[in-house]
Amino acid sequence: MLFIDFYNAILNTSFAYDDLPFSVETIKVTKGTRLTVYGQLEDSLYFMNKGIVEMTIKSYMTEKIIDFFFEAELFCGYTSFLDQLPTDVQTTALMDSEMEVIKRKDLLPAYDHSLEANKFGRIATEQGYIRKSNREKDLLTKTAEERYEEMFRTHSDYISFIPVNKVAKYLGIHPESLSRIRKKMNS
Asked: Which residue of 24, 145, 179, 183 has the lowest C-beta tally within 10 Å?
């Protein structure tokens, strides 16, 4: 899915890229590329066409994985994108990826003169909130096994591209525990 398809689906429109009230640039990044680094001001909103990125945050002496983003998903250091304070998250490509980028300097002025851009921003923010809220609920109410099964069900095409230790870190368990869960699922 391309960003324009996502945009049209959200707004129930049939725009072409030239009709958008802001510019969109397609980029390709290699595995290991850091799109957002700790402490920077987030100036871009990304839409994943193909690939996977992880979002991490520093915690004491370690780094925790907040989330993975896959095809047809928007992502960025959203708090920094909104308030323009240094970000406390980092996003890194876990495989060679293709994404589309919307610059903050292009998007925010579009809110002032385009009802569609404004509606897109609102809906994208709502979807981001729902995603975070559901993740929080899952962490509080589901076991690591249930969360892995959900991840496997929704993103089985990509799971093999994520190192086991990263999936375990995301689930908040040791890699050995994840191995037992995977073994149980395969038997």
From this structure: 183
